[in-house]
Amino acid sequence: TTLNFPLQDPVNLDKIRTPAPDQAFWARRKSKKGTRRHKGVDYQPKLEFEGQDINIVSPVSGIVTKKYSGCIAGSTEKAKECGSGYGNAMYVDKVLVKQSDTTGWVEGVISRYQFRLAHLKPKTISSISEGQGITKGTKVGVMGTTGNSSGVHLHYEIRKYVINKNLGEDEIFLNPNNFNSDYLIEEKAT
């Protein structure tokens, strides 16, 4: 299925390494609470760009639905609580069908996509507030290591919300690595 809206990469792909297998979507991660699934992709700077600011931009035009901006890099005291572990982060929603639109709010319809950009550098996050619109390509911050993070990287998630039979939303995680140059979604049965 093709997306019916334009999308761009949230980071300059020339400045990042291809995610290693342990940083890939759905990779199993070991933590103090046992093994958990990683539901996104982590992008780290290439060696020649380490220590430099790498800008992160909104992949779509949409609405900022969540923003965390008070997290400090390297602070382990509240790393997991800071942005629920995401650190400085911004969530951008591309709403396709509003819940108040009774004509389109039916089972099986995709209501929205959510793009999560996490672990941004302190004091670099955009001044755009929750509830405000954002344009595709607008800088949201700089790659960092805030929240539950062990090094500078961008955690990138894409979530799709589909209206269920109870007229609520089911959340489906999509793999950012499966968007090809035409941004086709390769959704495989699980």
Q: Summarize this, please?
A:
This protein is mainly beta. It has strands at residues 28-31, 34-37, 41-43, 55-57, 62-68, 88-95, 110-120, 133-134, 139-142, 154-163, 169-174. 32% of the residues are buried.
Characterization of the model:
By secondary structure, this protein is mainly β. The chain has strands at 28-31, 34-37, 41-43, 55-57, 62-68, 88-95, 110-120, 133-134, 139-142, 154-163, 169-174. Strands 3, 5, 6, 7, 8, 10 and 11 form a 7-stranded antiparallel β-sheet that branches. The protein is globular and about 50 Å long. The model is unreliable at 180-190 (pLDDT under 50).
Helix share bin: under 10%
Low-confidence stretches: 180-190
Helix-strand pattern: EEEEEEEEEEE
Computed over alpha carbons, the radius of gyration is 17 Å
Shape: globular
Tell me the major beta sheet.
7 strands, antiparallel
Task: Please tag this protein with its features.
190 residues, mainly beta, two-stranded antiparallel ribbon
